């Protein structure tokens, strides 16, 4: 997977990316056709089964691939003769074929494949979230790193070359955290890595099953959201921040954190630089207390904070949502379900009217957004 080469030398290339869905999506060219790919440091190169059916490639061996939910399967590897990004050619690049068409959340993102760490690691990359551009170069020290930039050392994961970092929470060490531009969360860690630290945090429990990987959704679990006194990521130090702790799956630093910085990833030095734009600062967690998800042709409650107003009014896991603010969700088509995931139509509102199916009766509730950290206290 770490083979292949860059054809050009002495270049700096800049291309736009689309961040409307909370993930960096870029355009690439393969065998004369243009495709949409996710720029993902947390994964190897991937092509969808549909794309694999369109192009020619050299077959490779089968490789064990684990998704973000911890599910592992064998996947076919292939060699693609050329992937062009902007005006730069990446020759004889390894990729994995994955059929993620059955995973609704993945299908809604609308990408044909992934530009992963095994390709990215051949160059230095700058991701400018503020201007929605990504630049890459083979010229050492090309990108301007200000003196006050935060520095995060990383260890490249074998073969795949994904950056793995360390995060300190209240002095507890969380190793093997994936620096993940393909994750749409912020700071997601594992409860079992520091049980005592997590138990002592002020916060709330989210019950349910909201996340999905390339093989599908994870199992029902309890995710703890808490305010940590101190957070250290490389040289970056923050105080009183909300961090989520899951019972399973990968630990990641994702786009909801990274988008507040200009990010430079230097695989020559094994260092990441964060240049502050707004800077990450999350001291509260405002929510309606329930979290919907499309299941078959229904919109279901797949996450609930029991102590929230919604929970106290009888809203439970696996309960059907009939309407939100007059929008009918009794029969959720793929297009309606994707619009709910990608557009998040009610995210900016502070108050909504929701009709739930409770004990076979439609019950309308007026829900107000609240800071669940303080609400629990």
UniProtKB/TrEMBL annotation:
It comes from the Bacteria. Pfam families: Asp_protease_2. Gene3D superfamilies: Acid Proteases (2.40.70.10). InterPro entries: PDZ_sf, Peptidase_aspartic_dom_sf, Retropepsin-like_bacterial. CDD domains: retropepsin_like_bacteria. This is PDZ domain-containing protein. It comes from Portibacter lacus.
């Amino acid at each position: 997977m770490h083979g292949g080469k860059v054809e050009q030398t002495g270049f700096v290339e800049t291309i736009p990316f689309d961040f409307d869905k909370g993930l960096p999506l870029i355009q690439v060219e393969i065998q004369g056709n243009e495709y949409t790919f996710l720029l993902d440091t947390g994964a190897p190169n991937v092509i969808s089964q549909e794309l694999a059916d369109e192009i020619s490639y050299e077959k490779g061996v089968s490789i064990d691939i684990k998704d973000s939910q911890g599910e592992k399967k064998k996947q076919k590897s292939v060699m693609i003769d050329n992937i062009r990004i902007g005006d730069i050619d990446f020759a004889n690049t390894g990729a994995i074929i994955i059929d993620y068409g059955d995973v609704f959340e993945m299908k809604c993102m609308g990408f044909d494949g992934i530009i992963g760490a095994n390709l990215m690691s051949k160059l230095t990359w700058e991701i400018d979230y503020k201007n929605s551009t990504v630049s890459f170069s083979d010229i050492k020290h090309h990108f301007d790193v200000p003196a006050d930039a935060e520095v995060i050392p990383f260890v490249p994961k074998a073969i795949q070359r994904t950056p793995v970092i360390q995060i300190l929470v209240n002095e507890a060490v969380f190793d093997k955290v994936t620096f993940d531009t393909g994750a749409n969360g912020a700071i997601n860690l594992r409860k079992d890595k520091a049980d005592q630290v997590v138990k002592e945090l002020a916060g709330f429990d989210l019950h349910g099953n909201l996340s999905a990987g390339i093989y599908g959704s994870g199992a029902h679990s309890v995710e703890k959201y808490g305010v940590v006194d101190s957070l250290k990521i490389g040289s970056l130090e923050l105080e009183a921040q909300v961090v989520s702790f899951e019972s399973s799956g990968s630990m990641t630093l994702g786009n909801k954190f990274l988008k507040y910085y200009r990010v430079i990833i230097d695989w020559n030095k094994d260092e990441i630089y964060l240049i502050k734009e707004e800077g990450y600062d999350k001291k509260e967690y405002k929510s309606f207390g329930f979290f919907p998800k499309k299941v078959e042709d229904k919109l279901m409650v797949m996450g609930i904070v029991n102590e929230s107003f919604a929970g106290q009014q009888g809203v439970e896991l696996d309960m059907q949502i009939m309407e939100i603010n007059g929008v009918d969700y009794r029969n959720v088509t793929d297009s309606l379900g994707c619009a709910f995931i990608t557009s998040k139509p009610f995210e900016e509102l502070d108050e909504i009217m929701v009709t739930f199916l409770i004990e076979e009766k439609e019950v309308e509730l007026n829900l107000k957004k609240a800071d669940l950290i303080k609400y629990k206290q």
